[in-house]
Design a protein that fits this description.
Length: 177
Amino acid sequence: MGLHLVSAGRDVPNEINVVIEIPKDAEPVKYEVEKESGAIFVDRILSTPMRYPCNYGYVPGTLGGDGDPLDALVILPLPLIPGSVIRCLPVGMLKMTDEAGSDEKLLVVPAPKIFPGYSHINDIKGVSPHWLERIGHFFEHYKDLEKGKWVKVEGWVGADEAKAEIVAGIQRYEQAK
């Protein structure tokens, strides 16, 4: 599938690539791309009857505090297919912790050439508070019925902190090679 060949982006940290794992509003199934093969595996079926509020994926060539690539939420009115790659601009980050440790979620919008509808958003302040509440609520509760799992949402930070996390994620990835 070749997803391991996809870079973190053309102009990191200002523009990044996001590999989509879960489409917006998809059935409550958690998919993950296997690093070795690039195949999309079913990780688990969510116990809560909730749908992902955004397209969900990761930034290749990065590592988060949990040892996995940095997670990214793509604000877009349409679902994207798993395995697709979209160029995005980071606008913020949801800081959270779960049973495995820190698990931040980058909030990104498509690059203006791909979808100009969000070209006016360049920081978390430009995102509707309703959207931020929906996303936060989803992540606060999507593991509620899974034994031994928990999530603590700590809040939103802006584009500068998101970009700093991307740079740190690339450094962690390079050190782990």
